[in-house]
Amino acid sequence: MIQWQSIDTVFLDMDGTLLDLNFDNHFWLDFVPKRYALAHKLTIEDAKNKLFPKFKALEGKLEWYCLDYWTQELKLDLAEMKLEVSGLIAVLPHVTEFLEALQTTGKRIILATNAHEKSLGLKMEKTCLRPFFDRIISSHGYGHPKEDQPFWEYLQKDEPFDPKRTLLVDDSLPVLRAARDYGLSNTIAILKNDSTKAPKDGAEFPAIYDFREIMPHPTG
């Protein structure tokens, strides 16, 4: 699927690509509504009915990924709450094996994520993946999420890359579409981004269930 000799730079998403999305799904769909219901004396169902439209309205926008925004909006200490359930943070199968193999090829390895810096720091601490990356980039530093073309324009200036010789692996179809529109020739979707749910439909892009399917070799 990947001609590794034609790749110089690898951009990897974090949540749902390297890390099990079960943590984030549980946090936003279960834990936050329960705490919001408790704080506002609501039933959990009423809390979800109030919160989920707010979440939906900001999907794909930088605010959706911003812990500071939601902390202010919901009047909950979300960073502290994430710490409470951080035991659910987990690396997806064969990710570490893939990163170890990728390091031997000499490719430039960049973690490119929409995660807010506070969440990013917690997850790097819990997973110990930081040493695998030549650089870690959060879209919050650019003021645009990966779904928007300006993200890729800022990324190109900040971390120059040849779109024809760059690979992006991500579980988000809107992000993959944005990268494709920017000119990235090599884009791969992750189908099994949440260990507790059925695989996604990735027919629009070349897709894998786990990283064994594109494991590089030391010769590149």
Largest sheet: 6 strands, parallel
Rg, Cα atoms, Å: 18 Å
Order of strands, widest sheet: 3-2-1-4-5-6
Query: In the CATH scheme, what's the topology name of the largest domain?
Result: Rossmann fold
For the record, give the distance between the C-alpha atoms at the N and C termini, rounded to a whole number: 13 Å
Beta strands, count: 6
Question: Low-confidence parts, pLDDT < 50 over ≥5 residues?
Answer: none
User: What is the total domain count?
Assistant: 2
Q: Which architecture of the largest domain would the CATH scheme give at its second level?
A: 3-Layer(aba) Sandwich
SSE string, helix = H, strand = E? EHHHHHEHEHEHEE
The fourth-level CATH homologous superfamily of the largest domain is HAD superfamily/HAD-like
Annotation field: number of helices: 8
Fraction of residues in helices? 40-55%
- What top-tier CATH class of the largest domain fits best? Alpha Beta
Q: Which structural class is indicated by helix and strand composition?
A: alpha/beta
Question: Can you tell me about this structure?
Answer:
- The protein has 220 residues and is α/β, with parallel strands linked by helices.
- The chain contains eight helices and six strands; from the N terminus they run E-H-H-H-H-H-E-H-E-H-E-H-E-E.
- It folds into two domains: 4-20 and 90-214, Rossmann fold (3-Layer(aba) Sandwich), CATH 3.40.50; 23-87, no CATH class.
- It has a six-stranded parallel β-sheet, covered by helices on one side.
- Helix 8 (173-182) links the parallel strand 4 and strand 5.
